[in-house]
Structures are given as structure tokens and as C-alpha cells.
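Supplementary Note 2. Why include the ligand at all?

Several targets in our set were suspected to adopt different conformations when bound, so apo predictions alone were not considered sufficient. For every target with a known small-molecule partner we therefore ran a joint prediction. The input for fe (ii) ion is given below.
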Amino acid sequence: MAHIEWSEKLEIGLAPMDAIHREFVDFANAVVAADDAGLLPALDALIAHTRMHFATEDRWMLESNFPPPCHRDEHRRVLEVMDAVRGQVVAGDMALGRRLAQELSPWFEQHASTMDTVLAAFLQQVGYDTTGKAAPATDTALPA
Ligand SMILES: [Fe+2]
Ligand SMILES: [Fe+2]
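The joint prediction is reproduced in C-alpha cell form.
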């Protein structure tokens, strides 16, 4: 299974973004590690965290007048895929949930090293202060 190992190459250098990304890795790895009974709760926790993650970055983009819309579009598409896969898992298709889990690692490495890196550089360049500007925390926790 595609367990995500946190490494320097995932470190972007914008502390609030890196903090959210470390959490994302934990939630994604919980999906990878889940057995059939734990798959749906782990997926729900990941989706809730990902909504917060993406809403936070979307807010930073809007408030800093980050021009290209493609980053927000990708966030929206990824959440649509996660929601669609969740529906299939509820219907009993565990294999599709496992397939999503396998795709999370390559997707995240690609997204962090391209779109998120560009966004972080832009925010630092224009002096946008991310302090206290995360989307509201979700009430989810990592599944036990
Ligand atoms: Fe991100
Ligand atoms: Fe992003």
C-alpha cells in the first residue's frame, strides 16, 4: 500500500501550510492502513480534514489575490472524487476505497511540489500573513 512518508521534499517552508500537510499525511495513512470495517470512518475523517485543508488554501488565494483559478479547481475536483468514492464505499465497494488510498500518495507529492509550492512562494512574496487564517477546524479526529 502507498503509505506516505513525511520527508524534506514535502516540506514547503510555510509553517501553517506544512502543519496542515503533516495532518493530511496522517489522515491519508489512516485510510491506507484501515481494514474493511475502518475504511469508511477513516475516509470520512480524511474528507473532513481535506475540506478544511482546501478551504484554508482557497481562502489564502482569494485574500491575497492569487491569480490562477486552476489550484482551486483542482481542490474542487479532488473533493468531488473523494465524495464519489465515499458513496461507492458506502455501497460496499471497498476496492474503490483502497484504490483511492493508493492514489493519495502520488497525488499529494505532485500537488505539494507544484501548486502548493507556487502558492506558498506567492504568499511570501506579497507578504500575506496566514496567521490565524485557517478555515474553522473540523470536529474530526484520527480514527483510533
Ligand atoms: Fe495543500
Ligand atoms: Fe493545494
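The pocket of fe (ii) ion (ligand 2) is lined by residues 57, 71, 75, 111, 115-116 (CB under 6 Å). The two ends are 19 Å apart (CA to CA). Comparable summaries for the other entries are listed in the accompanying table.
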